[in-house]
Amino acid sequence: MTVQEAPSTPGRAGREAAERDEPRAARTRDALLAVLRRHLRTGGGPLSVAEVCRRAGIHRVTFYGHWPDLDAALDDAATTEVDALGVTPEAVLSAATTPVELARTYRAQLRAQLEEVRAHREVYRGLFRAGGLELRLQTSMRTRAEDAIAQLRRLGVDTGDSLDVAAGYLAAGAAASYRDWAFSDEQDVDLAAARITAQLPAWWPQA
User: Fold this and answer.
1) How far apart are CA 207 and CA 101, in angstroms?
2) How far apart are CA 152 and CA 175, in angstroms?
3) Which residues contact 10 (CB under 8 A, 6 or more apart)?
4) Do residues 174 and 140 touch, judged by C-beta distance below 8 A?
5) What is the pLDDT of residues 69-97, one digit of tens each?
6) What's the DSSP call for residue 159?
């Protein structure tokens, strides 16, 4: 006689435990990212997983539950740093009554992101050389691009039929622009922002 195995799906107690763990995992990830972001803002330099965990007060095993290695964690921290500069309160976006107003808001975000890269250029150069940062930036910028397109459509801008194509184009272009800016020695943020916005699609409002 064979014994029927219990289903592999977790029971209620297991699910509840997993749900309790999710906020804890988010907190540990945020604590680690905070350490990494401070490290980036102070100019980078030698760093180890052990040192990150020591500063965050978290065990190394927990670190590897979030990232496979230090480079991946630093890529996430840098992406978070740049992406945070592209966040605009919903109230500000909703208050815009013309496409040009929106375009000015996004132009200010672009300028802030370029300032961030310029301020820590050597750090960003190293991360771009490692190869993971640009892809992560594309992913985060895609979300920002989708939001921007939705706002422009709200104000009557014809952005074309394909949201995916438009958002992908804007995200890839932004990520590549930050990479090129990081490896350049130029200092004029306004000129760089003007050059980037000049490559935007014809339907993008001129700020």
Assistant:
1) 7
2) 21
3) 18
4) no
5) 998 998 888 888 887 877 777 888 888 89
6) -
Report the distance separating Cα 46 and Cα 32, nearest Å: 16
What does the pLDDT read at residue 17?
Answer: 35
Cβ burial, residue 85 (10 Å; 0-12/13-18/19+):
middle
Report the distance separating Cα 197 and Cα 99, nearest Å.
15
The first and second tokens of residue 113, run together, are 């992101």
Token pair, residue 138, equals 């594309």
Cβ 130 vs Cβ 71: under 8 Å? yes
Q: What is the mean pLDDT of the chain?
A: 84
Please say whether the dihedral angle defined by the alpha carbons of residues 140, 144, 145 and 147, taken in this order, is positive or negative. Answer: positive
Q: What is the pTM of this model?
A: 0.73
Question: Are the C-beta atoms of 113 and 178 separated by less than 8 Å?
Answer: yes
What is the model's pLDDT at position 55?
93
Q: How many residues comprise the chain?
A: 207
Residue 162 phi/psi, 5-degree rounding, is -105, 105
Burial (CB < 10 A; 0-12, 13-18, 19+), residue 156, is exposed
Instruction: Check if the beta carbon of residue 138 is closer than 8 Å to that of residue 83.
Output: no
For the stretch 122-139, pLDDT in tens is: 888 988 988 788 988 898
Residue ranges, the chain, pLDDT below 50:
1-20
**Where do we find the tokens 């375009």?**
103
Tokens in use for 129? 């050389």
